[in-house]
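Sample entry as discussed:
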Amino acid sequence: MPPKERNIAIMGYRSVGKSSLSIQFIEGQFVDSYDPTIENTFTKTTRVNHQDYGVKLVDTAGQDEYSIFPAQYSMDFHGYVLVYSITSQKSFEVIQIIYEKLLDVMGKAHVPVVLVGNKTDLHQERAVTAEEGRKLAESWKAAFLETSAKQNESVQDIFHQLLLLIENENGNTQEKSSCVIS
């Protein structure tokens, strides 16, 4: 079977680790110092449940609460990774605004989303609890993960869970694996 092409946008406030997560997923390495992203596109083929996916990952420029949601991210995207840093309450607030703008622009009540609390390696600076993240994700009917791009913790899971959510959205329900939060 040919790989299914899936376009994914990774969004969030600046400096939450969107690029670090993207590069960790695509290249398997952690890039620490990184210039603020304009926008990068990465591609990778990955396999979930015996199906290959050609993932086109768009690492977006950091957004804040005043950014107008870029309309190009509402077209031709199958799913979204929304990232905040567990060390930043501000990034957690901004991600909620980004999500609302996303739904507005898409004109949908629901889109496949994985909410990601990144930077778990900085747990001593934690400002957002896992519980807060989980509750928010539940209210969105989204999957939720806490990750560390630095330690490559749960990074692959983000994209695998999102691909499963996208399949479900498309009505291709396969046997659920135990790590999918529905």
